[in-house]
Here is the input.
Amino acid sequence: MQCEFCGGQTRPKKVKRSHWFQQQLYIVEDVEAQVCTKCGERYFHAKTLDNLDALLKRQHPVRARLNVEVVNMAQALAQQAS
Here is the structure.
């Protein structure tokens, strides 16, 4: 497959994907993707994304939990300017 951003070629690779599902953020490892060998852009088949949703709907093993900050850039910059 040809990358639509840089014209490079993609190859199959397993990657980590940040995936929002039902207002919760997950990091899923070993997700199949096509990855551009030139710029690194990642492409996911629609069936792969549907499978992620199905996996996260049911009970699944959790390898780790992370504490993540959510920062609003506009608010932070406005606060910094005042």
Observations:
- Residues 10-81 form a domain with the Ubiquitin-like (UB roll) fold (CATH 3.10.20).
- The mean pLDDT is 96.
- The chain is about 25% helix and 35% strand.
- The longest helix spans residues 46-57.
